[in-house]
Every structure is written in C-alpha cells, then in structure tokens.
Amino acid sequence: MKTEKLYETDGMLHTFRANIIETKQTEKGFALMLDRTAFFPEGGGQTADKGMIGNAKVLDVQIVDGEIWHDTDILPETETVDCTLDFDERFRKMQNHLGEHLLCGAIHKLYGYENVGFHLGADYMTFDISGPMTAEQIYEAEKLANRAVAEDAPVRCYVPEDISALEYRAKSEKLEAVAEIRIVEVKGFDRCACCAPHLDRAGKVGLIKIVDAMKYKGGMRFSALCGFDALADYDRRLTEIRRVSALLSAKPHEIALGVEAKLAELGEAKKQIGALKRELSALKLAVIEETDGNICIFDDTMDGNALREFATNGVKKTSAIFAVFSGNDETGYQFVIASATIPLKAKVQDIRAALGGKCGGSDKMLFGHADASKDAILTYFG
Q: Whole-model pTM?
C-alpha cells in the first residue's frame, strides 16, 4: 500500500504532517492520496474519520483497490499538508469500539460465544453474538467488561510475528486470506483481530452499558453505549425520569409505584365512565318513540362499541331499520345499522351506493363508514 497507516499503531494520534502523492476530481469534490495518514477509512463496521487536510475538509475516507483515498471539498493549497482529525468524534468511536471488544471478550470468556456482527453508528453501537443469554448472564458479562475499565488495563495494537501461535478472537472467517492480521490486546482481558484504531488504555472507555438486548438469528443482538455516549444517554434518561417524577408527584426511584397507582385510578375511572355511558344511552333510548318506520340517530359521543350496543337495544323501537351514526360531514360517519325483521345483507350494495364508503355484516346488523353528508343520510333513511 502506498500510504502508511498511522492509525494502526497509534489511535490517539490526531495531528500529523503528510505529503499529497496523488489527486483526482470526483462528483463531490476531490480525492487525495497521502503518503501517511491517521484518518481511519470506513471498514469493520465503523465509519471513516473526519477532519482537515490543510485547508480542505475531509468528507470521507475509503480503501479502493487497496489504496486509501481521502474525499475532500477542495484541493489543499500545498502538497505538504498539516492534517487534523475531528478527535472528539474519533475518541467517541474508540470508546465504543473498545467497549465492544471488552463486552464480546467477556461473553466469550464466560459463555464461549463468538462475536458475529458489529456496527458503530452516529449515536449507537450494536453487536451480535452466536448464542442466547439470560438477563443474569448479560449482567455478569457487563460487569466483567467494566472491570477491565476499572483496572485501566493497557491496550496494545500489533501484528504478531507468528499468528498461528497466538490465541485470539476473530470477527470474520475471511482472515485466512489476509497477509497480516492485526491484533488488539487488552492485557489480561481480551485479544481480538481488528483493523480499527483504539484507545491506549481501557480506563479511557469510561463506562460500558448495554441498553438493549434481543434474540437474533439464533443468538443475540445487543445495543450498547460507552464513555461520553453512555453519559449523554444517562443524562437524557434522568431528565425524563425527573419529568415523570414531577408529573406523578413521586420520588424518582418510586415512579413505577406512581405509574401503577395512576393506572389503577385510570382503570376505576374507565369503569365509572362506562357505567355513565350505558346510563346515558338508556336515557337516550327511552325518549325515542316506537315506530313502524326507519329510525336514524346521530350522536358524536359514541365509539364503535357504543354504536353497536345502542343499535342492539334500539332495534326494539322499530319494525323496520334502526341506524345510528357518529362523525361529521368532513371526515365521514361511522355507523351501525340493525333490524329485527329486514334481511340487511341484501341491502349492502344499495347502502354503499347511497352513502358511499363501505359496510358489511350480517342480516341482523351492518357496520361501516359513510362518506355521504348528514342530509343525504337522513334522506336515505327518511
């Protein structure tokens, strides 16, 4: 390769000087090849570094046909350039990536599962393992990973002279075709093949926290946050907890009890509302006079269940059709049509044509939605 990979030996390097050895114009701007680079190109589930090459902004870094190309917005003014990484972003990625190594290493050590997938996004990190785990096992692996952080284990990135004599984890079975396998070793905790830049000590990861776990392809998929990402997530969650705590008038560590109490209150209130609705419905039915003709009622307070119950009781008021509608001319009307004497299924097509919308049901009762206006509905049943 024409470019020396500075990121492979020193992940903490964030400023360096290099020479531009080749340039080309692209659809988005320009692409540069340097004789040496600390910019990590996209790969291994991790996005490329950003930053500046001279006065040019680095938009992306990719390996194309074995060559490292830096996409930039403009051409730098000089061939020898001072380069600066967006190190806040690089540091965030290294915190999460090394945290993933420690988690997968802990899972492998405790339960023998392999890491079979990894992705580091803009605001989250996911990884997949080859077998199922219980909540207790997940917690034990998380504790072991954080122990490496607490002990500030040193991290070494290197290419061993004899890889066959070394025991290590690998994320891909394709490593047999790789000429040189780079190892990332957290002393006393984990050894894994990896191409990405890493922190020099585990303590700089800060905190490792699994925030979600789900079954996935016979194994598990985890979402985790490390370092400053974990801190930001904790702050967001704490803010929400405080808001809920205030709304419930409950202490932050007792909000579950507060929610349970509110749900109980809500359940009781629903029962009371249901009883009042049934009582109101009975009063409405009581004032409807019996007739041999059709009855058509409009009531905006009824939902589907209330319409059905009202029609079931209202059909006793007529030997023809009892229809009840809820809605308005703008959004249409939900309805229930019932009859004790007239087979309603035979009237479905006629009702659809007259009222628009759709309906269906049985000979005793039809349900549907009408697009027609209130006046048109009253005319049809009049």
A: 0.76
